[in-house]
Design a protein that fits this description.
Layout: H1 4-7, E1 13-19, E2 22-28, E3 35-40, E4 43-48, E5 51-56, E6 63-69, E7 72-78
Antiparallel strand pairs: 1-2, 2-7, 3-4, 4-5, 6-7
Length: 81
């Protein structure tokens, strides 16, 4: 999972927080449009308007929970990352 793919030319604010039992990834897409998020295998797919973004999760993640609210994507990962 690379945060650089979101902070480069698109200018999205992204942070990753590491914990003993997992990690949390937060990406601010800054969009007022309705957004959806889906988890397919080890890929998080975010659709905002006509734009689609994909985030590949690390193989070491045992479980992932995703949600998006007010244009901010949160991915909670469990496992020994």
């Amino acid at each position: 999972m690379t945060l650089e793919q979101f902070t480069g030319e698109d200018g999205h604010l992204a942070r990753q927080y590491e914990y003993d039992d997992g990690a949390v990834l937060a990406v601010d897409f800054g969009s007022q449009e309705e957004a959806t998020v889906d988890l397919v295998a080890d890929t998080v797919i975010v659709v905002i308007g006509e734009e689609q973004y994909e985030i590949d999760l690390p193989e070491a993640a045992d479980d992932a929970n995703t949600f998006i609210k007010n244009g901010v994507l949160t991915v909670e990962l469990e496992g020994d990352l």
